[in-house]
Amino acid sequence: MSATEIASAGKKSSHKAKTPDTQKRRKAKGVGERRGQYYFYLIPGLVAFITVIGGSFFYNVYISFTKWNGLGHPRWVGMQNYTKLMHDHTFWQSFVHAFYFIAAMSIIPTFLGVFLAALLFDYVAPRFGNKSAAFMRAGMYMPQIVPLTITGILWAWLLAPTTGVINNFLIKVGLDQFALNWLGEEKTAIFSLSIIMVWVQIGYTIVIFMSGMSRLDPSLQEAAQIDGASWFQRFRVITWAQLGPEIGVVLLTTTVAALKVFAPVYVMTGGGPGTATQVPAFFSYFHFFTTTKVGYGAAVATVLSVLLTILAVIILNIQNRQEQGANKR
């Protein structure tokens, strides 16, 4: 074989060796080009988001640095609203009450939701059929469909001190000492609202967790059952552990909803009696439309928005770390 033939063969073999890398680069380039075509369709939504959400937020931030009653021109006061906010007892009290709602709308429904969803999925459906489980799930989800204002009116009627169904029932069965002014006393108002919000939220968590259980590997449950594990042991070790992503999503969405809860407080108690059920969203609304301290109300709304953003980032980071750890295992 001549030197020319050897060189030609070497070039051919080199070309063949580079072919897979070239194909990968071309494939990646093609995928990138296809993705670039879809970015154009994001423009309308992005413009709407920047205009409606971003514009409103930054305007609210600007108003929070002013003194304004909603008429005329705002007067710049710098950090005065925020300084006053830090020394406002009612503002801090509203956040304490927000933690009651976090427990009522996030923590308790999450734990109860996983447990009840597992009962429906593992016990009710196999023994009584999927239709029975679906009917019970739909019934528990019903409070989520009803508007919160209607829910508030309904429960205000049920808990009315003299004409309410609950107090009349307690009196008829001889439990007069428990017939309280549930929404009109400082000691019972916040707990009454919390119980109502547990009832409202439980259906949402059940639906999410039952959906998550449908993706779990049934062979793990079957193997544990063959080994003699009880239902609760299987629930604790297998079901709970594998529902990590769903639990993270539920905790995030329900915690955000709890911190910005407004309608039930507005309809049933109006933040009272006194400030017993005051929450950040209602506190901001109160200063916007009742005291007409728009700048002060905007400061409350800004602080709440920042806290919600920080909380969402923290929960998402924790969830991502858990998913990465699970993937490594």
Question: What attributes does this structure have?
Answer:
329 residues; mainly alpha; MetI-like fold; 2 domains; two-stranded antiparallel sheet
Rg: 29 Å
Roughly what is the average pLDDT, rounded to an integer? Answer: 86
**Quaternary organisation of the protein chains:** single chain
C-alpha geometry: flat
| Backbone structural class | mainly alpha
* CATH homologous superfamily descriptor of the largest domain: MetI-like
User: What percent strand?
Assistant: under 5%
| Strand and helix order | HHEEHHHHHHHHHHHH
Head-to-tail CA distance between termini:
56 Å
Question: Would you write up a description of this structure?
Answer:
- The chain is mainly alpha-helical and 329 residues long.
- The protein is built from 14 helices and two strands.
- A two-stranded antiparallel sheet has the order 1-2.
- Helix 2 crosses helix 14 (294-328), helix 8 packs antiparallel against helix 11 and helix 11 runs antiparallel to helix 14 (294-328).
